[in-house]
Description:
The chain is an alpha/beta fold. It has one domain (26-283): TIM Barrel, CATH 3.20.20.150. It has helices at residues 5-22, 47-57, 76-85, 89-101, 118-130, 145-155, 175-182, 195-200, 205-212, 241-250, 268-283; strands spanning 29-30, 33-38, 61-65, 104-109, 135-138, 158-162, 189-194, 216-221, 223-224, 231-232, 257-259. An 8-stranded parallel barrel has the order 2-3-4-5-6-7-8-11, surrounded by 7 helices. A two-stranded antiparallel sheet has the order 9-10. α5 (118-130) packs parallel to α6 (145-155). The chain is globular. The N and C termini lie far apart (55 Å).
Amino acid sequence: MMITRRRFSSIALGATATATSTFAQINSKVNGVRLGAQSYSFRDMDLDAALQAMKEIGIGTVEMFSGHVEPKGLRGEALTKWRLETPLSVFKKVRKKYDAAGIELYAYNYSFRDNFTSEEIEQGFKMARAMGVKVITASSNVSTAKKIDPFAAKYKIRVGMHNHSRIHDNEFATPDDFARAMNGTSEYICVNLDIGHFTAANFDPVDYLTENHAKIVTLHIKDRKKNQGPNTEFGQGDTPIKQVLAVLREKKLSIPANIEYEYKGADTTAEVRKCFEYCRKALS
């Protein structure tokens, strides 16, 4: 069958429209606040299933848990070997999956530890670069910051140090821990503030965000009780989630507010949707 110029143009336009719709970006901003998720929330799923769940919920920004690309069950030397020997093309393919799902891959969670060699530290930055992200989040030791810093500056990738609630000399939990890590390091050593853990350690995430937002690259949004209390459903703990979100809205901050689902619920997708709706309603 002969295809006329008009018919060819129609086919081409249709193909373009299909491609555009396939890669349409999910917009999960609410009143200017970037609501997203830490993909650890979907730790009971593989990456493809997690992406599908996030699409169903309407999550448009993600900080990816390393367990969504690293093989399950690998520990110690076996995991180090995988990290050092896996082709970077694997990570480029991961980025393509996010693009195809219409989800922004904002950060990669790669937790540098004191026992990492320089090669293993640098490999994390190579992975991040292959995925096109400018932020790494890390549950690291405070003393590791100075080992990470030269690589962060070399690759121009910011590293957000993630806090937990346990007070320990070489773990991130307190404002002083963040200050020690950033003292004497470059602009690329930053903060990934987990507001639930910060509250459980009896610190105020609203004050910390207000005073230090220039150094915060991501927030983890969860609810916990004070005094090392448990994770709870959103709105049932002591974490000032609504007030934190209000600071982001009022100051027009572009820091992603990433839901990290850690309390025990019946169904992951349903529970993350509840968390997302709680945040969305708080911002509406």
